[in-house]
């Protein structure tokens, strides 16, 4: 099959989801109200609660949720063939990811910007909430530790990406000042910012930078990891308008342009998919497609991390409730398009099937490198960009995605630490919570040695933990909708499927960890499995109570009535 046809079909399906299905969800299911007083206005503090232009907030949300996962997941999953990955990404984006992300935003906005962890106590119960915090903490720990390792390795393997990666921070700081302090025109600032970022890419391509192999006896990747965590810790306590928002916004524009370059190259190059649609010759040791496909590709189809970002930072910045459709659903669309691009790059970016099979010689052998090399080959053929420049563009895309996710991840981990403190009746300050969040992630990252390999130690559980989080978030949405006497079918059907695949995958991985004598992952798998079953039972009980009319949201009904009175 030709990659052009696949790209056209995939993009058309995903955009149709936004223009049609998201409108149904916004009007008939979540019933977003333009005059509802959002937390960003009600609780404005200039640090976390900041009313934000929906385009700027979309940039923050999209780049925060995307990370490296929508590249890594599809780039690994194509080992089963490109068709299963394609179907899961497109159908998942349309009917699951967009619905989940918009819903998480709506749920948090209706509850004063509270996180999913805090919402679980209100809608599921205290026992479920405590287990929820365990799952959330482990998920954020995996994201922060693993992405630090991924970014460090990319900065070492592609030194031309160093200048644009760190230069983007300076550009973001200037953009934040231009938008919020000097009130300059957003469109003009956007154009200048994007031009500056691509100028940095050109400079970086000509001036590659590398650290010495060791610095005071510490290997270069460990030095990068330390620098990244110091930066993320500082960024997580700064006001969102100063760095986080403008950095994510301008990165979002740059990354969408990068996707445009990739898809334009696909159209011009007209490459065929060299990988099989269904791979009947998978390497020995490759797990079964069902259920592992549905947890290998999480970000790009549906991801629990999105709900954490939506309820952790984005909901506190939403200017109008109706903006949730653009920020939440269209943010998922952006990630779906990235995942689709990763599928095409890693299956049409090789010249022959033999070349593809040499890379995909074992499960988990694909990944970011396959995306950068395959996508670079397509951009070279389609646009005539040099192989080095193409690799720099795509590597910078991957690094900026991962870095913005890490920024937000550390901020969210700080919120979780503070919420855990509240549950134990302890007051944990912003600085102390940040130090704890960074210290725990650094401890995991360097727990297996200075090479940072510990950061990927528990990564095999990321997919299942992430999808479990998404399923449980959908449970909260179902309870909220039941209390309002609204349809729950668009939420419950994806929830049942997702939780079934996740629990199934946890059992499959349990057997794998036992056979490999991987006792750490075995114990963590058991903890997550017990938490999953327990919270599922609690969620079913909460839905039954909501169906019987218990636990009506008097406060929210009153707020909604007040906003409707104002609008009339």
Automatic annotation (TrEMBL):
The chain crosses the membrane at residues 6-26, 62-80, 86-109, 130-155, 161-179, 186-203, 223-244, 251-269, 289-314, 326-350, 389-410, 431-450, 456-481, 488-507, 519-537. GO terms for cellular component: plasma membrane. Residues 548-568 are annotated as: Disordered. It comes from the Bacteria. GO terms for biological process: cellular response to starvation. It is a multi-pass membrane protein. Signal peptide: none annotated. Residues 2-347, 363-505 form the CstA N-terminal domain. Residues 559-568 have a biased composition (Polar residues). It is found in: Cell membrane. Keywords: Cell membrane, Membrane, Transmembrane, Transmembrane helix. Belongs to the peptide transporter carbon starvation (CstA) (TC 2.A.114) family. This is Carbon starvation protein. It comes from Janibacter cremeus.
């Amino acid at each position: 099959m030709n990659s052009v046809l696949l790209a056209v079909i995939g993009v058309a399906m995903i955009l149709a989801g936004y223009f049609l299905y998201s409108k149904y969800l916004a009007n008939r299911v979540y019933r977003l109200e333009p005059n509802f007083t959002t937390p960003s206005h009600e609780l404005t503090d200039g640090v976390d609660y900041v009313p934000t232009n929906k385009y700027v907030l979309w940039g923050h949300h999209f780049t925060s949720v995307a990370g490296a996962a929508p590249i890594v997941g599809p780039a690994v999953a194509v080992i089963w063939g490109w068709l299963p990955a394609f179907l899961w990404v497109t159908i998942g984006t349309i009917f699951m990811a967009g619905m989940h992300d918009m819903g998480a935003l709506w749920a948090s906005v209706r509850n004063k910007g509270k996180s999913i962890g805090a919402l679980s106590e209100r809608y599921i119960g205290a026992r479920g909430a405590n287990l929820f915090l365990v799952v959330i903490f482990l998920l954020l720990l995996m994201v922060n530790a693993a992405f630090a390792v991924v970014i460090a390795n990319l900065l070492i393997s592609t030194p031309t990406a160093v200048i644009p990666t760190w230069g983007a921070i300076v550009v973001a700081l200037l953009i934040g000042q231009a938008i919020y302090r000097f009130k300059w025109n957003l469109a003009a600032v956007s154009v200048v910012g994007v031009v500056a970022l691509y100028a940095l890419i050109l400079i970086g391509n000509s001036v590659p930078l590398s650290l010495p192999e060791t610095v005071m006896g510490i290997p270069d990747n460990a030095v990068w990891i330390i620098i990244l965590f110091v930066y993320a810790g500082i960024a997580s306590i700064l006001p969102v308008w100063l760095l986080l928002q403008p950095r994510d916004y301008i990165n979002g524009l740059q990354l969408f342009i990068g996707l445009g370059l990739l898809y334009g190259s696909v159209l011009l190059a007209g490459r065929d998919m060299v990988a099989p649609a269904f791979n009947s010759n998978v390497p020995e040791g490759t797990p079964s497609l069902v259920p592992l496909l549905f947890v290998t590709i999480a970000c790009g189809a549906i991801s629990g991390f999105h709900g954490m970002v939506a309820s952790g930072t984005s909901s506190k910045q939403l200017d109008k409730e109706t903006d949730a459709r653009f920020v939440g659903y269209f943010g998922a669309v952006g990630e779906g398009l990235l995942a689709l691009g990763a599928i095409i790059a890693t299956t049409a970016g090789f010249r022959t099937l033999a070349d593809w099979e040499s890379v995909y010689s074992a499960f988990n052998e694909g990944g970011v490198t396959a995306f950068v090399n395959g996508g670079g080959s397509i951009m070279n053929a389609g646009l005539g960009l040099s192989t080095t420049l193409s690799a720099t563009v795509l590597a910078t895309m991957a690094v900026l995605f991962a870095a913005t996710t890490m920024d937000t991840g550390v901020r969210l981990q700080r919120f979780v630490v503070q919420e855990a403190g509240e549950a134990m009746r302890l007051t944990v300050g912003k600085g102390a919570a940040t130090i704890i969040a960074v210290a725990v992630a650094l401890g995991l990252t360097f727990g297996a040695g200075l090479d940072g390999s510990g950061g990927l130690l528990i990564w095999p559980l990321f997919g299942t933990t992430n999808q479990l989080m998404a399923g449980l978030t959908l449970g909260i949405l179902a309870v909220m909708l039941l209390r309002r006497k609204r349809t729950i079918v668009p939420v419950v059907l994806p929830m049942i499927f997702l939780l079934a695949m996740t629990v199934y995958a946890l059992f499959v991985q349990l057997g794998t960890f036992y056979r490999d004598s991987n006792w750490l992952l075995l114990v963590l798998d058991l903890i997550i499995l017990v938490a999953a079953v327990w919270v599922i039972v609690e969620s079913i009980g909460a839905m039954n109570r909501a169906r019987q009319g218990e636990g009506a949201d008097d406060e929210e009904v009153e707020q909604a009535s007040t906003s409707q009175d104002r609008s009339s």
